[in-house]
Amino acid sequence: MTPERVDTAIHSVNSGLVSSSHVLLGLLAVGAMHGYDLKRAYDNRLPQAKPLGYGQVYATLGRLSRDGLVTPAGQDRDAGPDRTSYAITPAGRAALDEWLAAVEPPAPHVASTLLNKVMVALLVADVDRARRYLTAQRRAHTDRLRELTALKIAPGARLDDVIAADYAIAHLDADLRWLQTTLDRVADWHREVRA
Amino acid sequence: MTEPPAQLQARGVVRSYGATPALRGVTLDVAEGEIVAVTGPSGCGKSTLLHCLAGILRPDAGEIGYRGQRIDTWSEAARSRLRRTEFGVLFQFGQLVAELTAAENVALPLLLAGTGRRAARTAALSWLDRLGVADLADTRPGEMSGGQQQRCATARALVTEPRVLFADEPTGALDTLTGEQVLGHLVRVAREQRTTVVLVTHDARVAGYADREIAMRDGTVDHSGLGLVGGPR
Ligand SMILES: Nc1ncnc2c1ncn2[C@@H]1O[C@H](COP(=O)(O)OP(=O)(O)O)[C@@H](O)[C@H]1O
Ligand SMILES: [Mg+2]
Q: Which region is the signal sequence (chain B) (predicted)?
């Protein structure tokens, strides 16, 4: 294959993978592991993420293996089939490099359940209904923001936790600003939606 | 009432600057040891409320209570004594005396209260240490970063071991990471000392450090449920 063809092949493999697969690939790039350790390493590195199920880990390994990105690299002697350890292949390494270099598109379409809810509230009910929702949503966001802040400043907090919490806090803060301006604008918006 | 009175109380507080109304009837309670954030858009009356609670400004109407006593009717001298002994204040910037070192700045409130020089210096050094800036003891404010200055100012506000710390946008002039370090220290020390903190901010991320949020709007406390967070801890 020409380099261009290889790139296209890698690209199509990558675009079929969710980002947790790339995290697993990245962990395997550090050293071969079996599924059990891989799951633990994932949860340990991304403590604020949704924990991966074992089933998901084995399914992903199966898929990565089928695509030639990882390969079985021996078995623990005292174990059953689940103790197969996997190593990253050169193709896996190339796919990982491509993924790392690819800039994520800055969301071209705004899709948010929050936004949809306010719009539908105005469509089927009234400004009060929309305000009640916005207010309750704002409280939930602020509660979560406080929990995450407490987690960050807890004695002995790890930088893994702090940085993941920072990410979530920045997004909650952005939502909170939007919730506030929308509360201020909702009456005008209602007139427009109903016009 | 069966409950003990809140440590800080405002009842229907009204305050104007000439024809400009700043507070239009504010009622709130703050419990001892609580960290509350007073939030709201610029101009909604947060700073005016803080000044009224701290006995710096007198309301035009309404009452300010501190530990069950009504303090807004006290003389300026009596309120000033209360501020020196029971309260600490922290502003956005400009509280440190430029000619004095960090240790001298922090010792100042103790010296004014009649503490001896040696004891005041010892206390100042220990407070600088608690705020993580012990190495700046002999440095003047002009040679410090903004974050270092605010940590020294926090030490100065807490050196008298006040029961209440009033902080008005204490990290407003700092970048996010530096502001977080100042807030992290402030909140940790306040919890250790069981100091009540009234933290004025327009930033939700800063309010995240508090136990509870008091949201203001147009000179009143927003009780519509916009008050964001739940009850006391
Ligand atoms: N010293 C002053 N003289 C005249 N008006 C003032 C003064 N201080 C504040 N105000 C006005 O009072 C209102 C509330 O101000 P302030 O308490 O500083 O609000 P915040 O701290 O929320 O920004 C605003 O309209 C402001 O312009
Ligand atoms: Mg202000």
A: none
Q: Does B232 touch chain A (CB under 8 A)?
A: no
At B228 the pLDDT is: 40
Residue A168's contacts (CB-CB under 8 Å, 6 or more residues apart) are A48, A144, A148
- Say which CATH topology domain A3-101 has: Arc Repressor Mutant, subunit A (1.10.10)
Displacement of CA B23 from its chain's centroid (Å): 19
ipTM confidence score = 0.81
Place of tokens 């040891």: B33
Best of B228, B229, B233 to disrupt the A interface (most A CBs within 10 Å) is: B228
Helix (H, G, I), strand (E, B) or coil at B227: coil
- Is B175 contained in some domain? yes
The burial of B200, by beta-carbon neighbours within 10 Å (0-12 exposed, 13-18 middle, 19 or more buried), is given as: buried
> pLDDT tens digit string along B196-214?
999 999 999 999 999 999 9
Q: In chain A, pLDDT over 70 holds for what percent of residues?
A: 87
- Interface check for B34 against chain A (CB to CB < 8 A): the answer is no
pLDDT of residue B233: 30
Q: Is B48 in the pocket of ligand 1 (CB under 6 A)?
A: yes
Residue B43 CB–ligand 1 contact under 6 Å? yes
pLDDT in tens, A35-59: 999 999 998 888 777 888 889 999 9
pLDDT per residue as tens digits for the range B70-81: 999 999 999 999
Cross-chain residue pair B210–A173, CB shorter than 8 Å: no
Which of B13, B17, B23 gets mutated to test ligand 1 (max ligand atoms within 8 A of its CB)?
A: B17
Tally of structural domains, chain B: 1
Q: Which CATH number is B77's domain given?
A: 3.40.50.300
Which member of A132, A145, A183 has the closest CB to residue B208? A145
Judge whether B211 lies within some domain: yes
Our answer on whether the CB atom of B44 is closer than 6 Å to any ligand 1 atom is: yes
Domain that holds residue B184: 8-86+162-228
Q: Is the CB of B184 under 6 A from ligand 1?
A: no
Q: Where are the domains of chain A?
A: 3-101, 113-194
